[in-house]
Write a structure and sequence with these properties.
The protein is α+β, with helices and mostly antiparallel strands and about 375 residues long. About 50% of the residues lie in helices and about 15% in strands.
Length: about 375
């Protein structure tokens, strides 16, 4: 009956400490972001492009390091929280034992008749002391019950904090995986870029100029053909042969798809859509240095492919690729580049009205623009 009184411990979440390593990494990330923005303004030379790529790789690596540091910090916090929860659980067990003991003792004493309680007391002061102690214990028991309940509430809050931190760790893990994959892509893009340009300023400038001339040539062809009469073509009809005309890096077909209803609306980069959205699903071989190589299912529409699938190779996909940011001033590649050396026939992917350019701009470029009933236009360029 004379044991010491035990009170519940007040529990408060531990704030996340400021981490100097994380702050330093974030500062470096900001520096590389500023550096890339500055370099983008002078990307007309091979050396500046390589500097941009190197900076992008460094930036991604720093982001990986920063994410790993955050993961390490969170793991430490989670470990501390787990230890705190374990300690708190033990305290709750001990407090519960004491509480049950006190309630039992209070009940036993409280069940004695006051006269019997007086008779077993040594004196009146002893009786008063015993009665007063009983009253104090009852008051303390009520307080202990309240504080134990409060401790349980704090314990629940600690568990919720722990679960939130676990979710944050999982999100950071996913972010780290994405950064790692991005770093691999950037390194691969740099290797491809160096291989294509042969690390030669002269080769780089030639390809840069050819890409710009290709754009201007197709744009000019659209303007010239506006005044010509189109002819009806059927789905799958042969409209030409794969070639190397009009500023090409090698014999291939530049196949683009646009949401257009007239040549007056045509612009090389505007209103283009991914050809995979309209072409029928086929297993196609990809040789693109900008994409995952190998055979993969491509397409999800109803248009037939513009060349025979057997022997077909895609060398550059649609969108931002390892070449488009360099050769197209940061714009996405608005087409599929493909070739098939075993069958060079190019076919209309759907019926429509075809405008045919045979050196229509006087600089050797050949191609076809076909407008289809569903509001789509398809472009076939570099034909023989």
């Amino acid at each position: 009956m004379h044991g010491s009184l035990i009170y519940a411990e007040e529990v408060t979440p531990t704030p996340t400490p400021s981490n100097s390593s994380t702050e330093n990494l974030n500062r470096q990330i900001k520096e590389y972001q500023d550096k890339i923005a500055s370099l983008q303004e002078e990307k007309k030379t091979l050396s500046s492009q390589i500097a941009i790529m190197n900076s992008q790789i460094q930036l991604t690596q720093l982001r990986i390091n920063a994410t790993e540091q955050q993961l390490a910090d969170l793991r430490k916090e989670i470990k501390k929280t787990t230890e705190k929860i374990g300690t708190l659980q033990e305290q709750l067990k001990e407090q519960t034992k004491v509480l049950i003991g006190r309630i039992t003792a209070t009940y036993q004493v409280g069940s004695i008749h006051p006269l019997e309680f007086l008779l077993i007391s040594n004196s009146v002061p002893d009786f008063l002391t015993r009665a007063n102690y009983l009253r104090l214990v009852q008051i303390h028991d009520k307080k202990l019950i309240f504080e134990t309940q409060q401790t349980k509430t704090d314990y629940t809050n600690q568990k919720e904090i722990f679960e939130e931190k676990k979710q944050k760790v999982e999100a950071l893990k996913k972010q780290l995986e994405n950064y790692t994959a991005q770093l691999d892509r950037e390194k691969k893009e740099k290797e491809s870029f160096l291989a294509v340009t042969k690390n030669s300023e002269q080769e780089y400038q030639k390809r840069l100029a050819d890409a710009l001339r290709e754009l201007r040539q197709i744009q000019a062809a659209a303007r010239v053909l506006i005044s010509s009469e189109p002819r009806k073509v059927n789905k799958g009809e042969a409209i030409g042969l794969m070639g190397n005309t009009g500023y090409s890096f090698g014999a291939h077909l530049h196949f683009g798809v646009y949401n257009l209803s007239s040549l007056e609306q045509y612009d090389y980069y505007s209103n283009s859509i991914n050809p995979a959205d309209v072409l029928e699903s086929q297993n196609v071989d990809w040789e693109s240095d900008c994409d995952t190589k190998g055979q993969k299912s491509t397409g999800g529409g109803t248009f037939v492919w513009p060349m025979s699938i057997s022997g077909l190779r895609i060398t550059q996909g649609y969108g931002h690729t390892c070449y488009s940011d360099v050769y197209y001033r940061g714009n996405p590649h608005p087409a599929f580049d493909m070739y098939n050396n075993s069958d060079i026939v190019v076919k209309a992917v759907e019926e429509g009205k075809a405008y045919i350019c045979r050196n229509c701009t006087g600089d050797g470029g050949n191609g076809v623009f076909i407008f289809h009933p569903n509001g789509k236009m398809t472009l076939y360029w570099h034909l023989q």
